[in-house]
Amino acid sequence: MFSEDRFLEACNELKSPIIDEYEFFTESHDVKIYRKYREESGLYEYKIFGLLKGVSPETCRQVYVDLEYRKEWDGYVKELREINEGDKNGVYWQVNFPFPMSNRDYVFMRECREFDIDTRKITVVLGQSQLFASEPELSGVIRVDDFCQSLALESDGDDGTKAFMYYYDNPKGMIPTWLINWGAKTGVPKFLTDMQAACKGYADYLKSKTS
């Protein structure tokens, strides 16, 4: 689905971050965020570098791609499920937005691959908007059709995970710029903190599903 170069670009960011065209945005809880302005949309794309202490890259990968578990720990999820359409596989994701704004939904392809680079084991997950005929737009929900995300994970050399994330989407609608900026500044660190807690509870979750 994705080119080899897309995966390798994400791998390289872990060792040699490319932030020359980005401005420093914020830092919180072992997370640094940089952003770059997109003239055509008036929005920012983001690069996030962080540490998730006390959880392995393998657990992070499992938690990140486990859609059923995501419903348990991510309070913004309204609906989340896999899409299987012929030889195309993807994800449907509807996000709760605060009243009076409409919910947003995403339909995207996703692919996960692992790499061994100079004795480093790196996991990369890519996601990007994709049309699926079986997933038409819903009344009252705004379809986000310009979405792109990369996630790269590797060991921090101890008992934790070093993570890189690239993120961009255009939520459309009349959302004030200050609200989008606030969401990026607070939401991304909170997401990684919540994900770290979810990783630590994953073993218990799996046990509960088999008991």
UniProtKB/TrEMBL annotation:
Domain of life: Eukaryota
Chain ranges of the START domain: 1-204
Database matches in InterPro entries: START-like_dom_sf (IPR023393), START_lipid-bd_dom (IPR002913), START_lipid_transfer (IPR051213)
Gene3D superfamilies: 3.30.530.20
Membrane-crossing segments per the record: none
Entries under PANTHER family matching the protein: PHOSPHATIDYLCHOLINE TRANSFER PROTEIN (PTHR19308)
Name used for this protein in its record: Phosphatidylcholine transfer protein-like
Organism expressing this protein natively: Saccoglossus kowalevskii (Acorn worm)
